[in-house]
Amino acid sequence: MKNTKEKIAYLQGLSKGLDVNESSREGKVLSGIISILDDLAEQIEDIEIAHEDLEDYVESIDEDLYDLEGDLYGDEDVIDEDMVEVVCPNCDETVCFEADIVDDEDLIEVTCPNCDEVVYVNDQDLIEGGNNRGVPLSGNREMPLVSRVDEDI
Predict the structure, then answer these.
(1) What pLDDT score was predicted for residue 81?
(2) Is 122 helix (H, G, I), strand (E, B) or coil?
(3) pTM of structure
(4) How many CB atoms within 10 Å of residue 41?
(5) Is pLDDT above 90 for 99?
(6) What is d(CA 140, CA 134) in angstroms, rounded to the nearest whole number?
(7) Which of helix, strand or coil describes residue 121?
(8) How far is CA 125 from CA 23, 90, 129, in A?
């Protein structure tokens, strides 16, 4: 915003340096436009300051909410009963995703957020093709069958 205010100040100085006569029609228009631009630049600067203050406030609220959730639910990860767990064959990371993906008619690939390896494909033709261990990933490795997460864990 500082750059805009500098440009407006330059225009004000330019109009004074060119001896723009404010009593002429053109001079009145130019000085009015420059004045409005100056007012708009100040209002935008005020809005930017208020926006930064609001960002700080929302961030503070978010941190407080995170702390409150930690106090209320504990620091343990809350496991939803409608989630499915798969272990990544590449990095052994446990990947959770919604159980609805398993029954979805569209082709969906779930990738590991850690190594970007595909850990599950809901292609029923590959799964029902006699391979009870899951959908082949690459090479000799096969993806283990997914298991639904129980709420009692």
Answers:
(1) 63
(2) coil
(3) 0.42
(4) 19
(5) no
(6) 13
(7) strand
(8) 83, 24, 6
CA 47 from centroid of its chain's CA atoms: 23
**Category of 17 on φ-ψ map: left (φ > 0), alpha (ψ -120 to 50) or beta:** alpha
Non-local CB neighbours of 28 within 8 Å, separated by 6+ positions? 22
- Residue 79 neighbours by CB under 8 Å, 6+ apart: 96, 149, 151, 153
Q: Cite the DSSP H helix spans in the chain.
A: 2-17, 25-73, 100-103, 124-128
Q: Which amino acid is at 7?
A: K
Count Cβ neighbours within 10 Å for each residue of 53-75 and write b for 16 or more, e otherwise: eeeeeeeeeeeeeeeeeeeeeee
In eight-state DSSP terms, residue 107 is -
Give the type of residue at 134. G
Q: What is the pLDDT of residues 20-72, one digit of tens each?
A: 888 888 888 988 999 999 999 999 999 999 999 999 999 999 999 988 988 88
Residue 97: name the closest of 75, 116, 119 by CA.
119
Side chain identity at 84, as an amino acid letter? Answer: V
Please give the single-letter amino acid code of residue 103.
D
Question: Of all helices (H) and strands (E), which one includes residue 111?
Answer: strand 109-111
Q: What are 86's strand-pairing partners?
A: 95
122 compared with 124, residue with greater pLDDT: 122
